[in-house]
Design brief:
five-stranded mixed beta sheet; Uracil-DNA Glycosylase, subunit E; binds iron/sulfur cluster; two-stranded antiparallel sheet; alpha/beta
Length: about 220
């Protein structure tokens, strides 16, 4: 895997003490006081930049990525996401809910629209906009990028905003596919959260079908 040069790496990853969102900085500090062994900082993207697929989530979960420092790692959403990625050949190894479990992504990268954990898992519009340049940098740095999977409405909107597209013209819909320029497609899925699976909004079968669709877009 090629390492990005220093300027690209800086654009992709906010510093661990990023102070651009005061509310989130205060929440990070509060989490650090309660759980000093946790990461409690912006969570970097995971997976190779040379991938065809970029998965965009909402933000780190407090006990998930905010704790373990790897997107979707350590909470329920990660259990479902990584199991699905392993089934569909987008990951190798085994997932053990830790950043050092040795799991590797194949032709797939994972990021979040907002890199710091927000209170109650709800970033404000201002926070999403403030963090947007880091998401935009992902699109710029991923030269082979072909499919973007947005997990949930906010991720969908963040992707369109980062690309400067008119959001009203391309509405979120589970299973919907949108052309987003440069030959790239955006695929929407309900977020793989515990709430969505417990309520039946998203079943495992529905989530697998999304990855079947992505495989078809990528040519099998
Ligand atoms: S959410 Fe993004 S922009 Fe805001 S403090 Fe965290 S890393 Fe910085």
């Amino acid at each position: 895997m090629k390492s990005p040069d220093a300027s690209v790496a800086a654009a992709l990853a906010p510093p661990l003490d990023c102070g651009l969102c005061p509310r989130l900085v205060a929440y990070r500090a509060a989490n650090h006081r309660k759980e000093p062994s946790w990461h409690n900082a912006p969570v970097a993207s995971f997976g190779p930049l040379e991938a065809d697929l970029l998965i965009v989530g909402l933000a780190p979960g407090r006990r998930g990525a905010n704790r373990t420092a790897r997107p979707f790692t350590g909470d329920f959403a990660g259990d479902l996401l990584y199991a699905t990625l392993l089934t569909h050949g987008f990951a190798t190894g085994s997932y053990a809910a830790r950043a050092d479990d040795g799991l590797e992504l194949r032709n797939c990268r994972i990021t979040n629209a907002v890199r710091c954990v927000p209170p109650e898992n709800k970033p404000t519009g201002t926070e999403a906009a403030t963090c947007r340049p880091f998401l935009r940098a992902e699109f710029d740095a991923m030269e082979r990028l072909s499919v973007v999977l947005a997990l949930g409405t906010i991720a969908h909107q963040a992707v369109l905003a980062a690309l400067g597209r008119v959001r009203a013209a391309q509405r979120f819909g589970h299973g919907a596919t949108h052309e987003i320029g440069a030959g790239r497609r955006l695929v929407d899925s309900y977020h793989c959260s515990r709430l969505n699976t417990n309520t039946g909004r998203l079943t495992e079968a529905m989530f697998h079908a999304i990855f079947d669709k992505i495989r078809a877009h990528l040519g099998g």
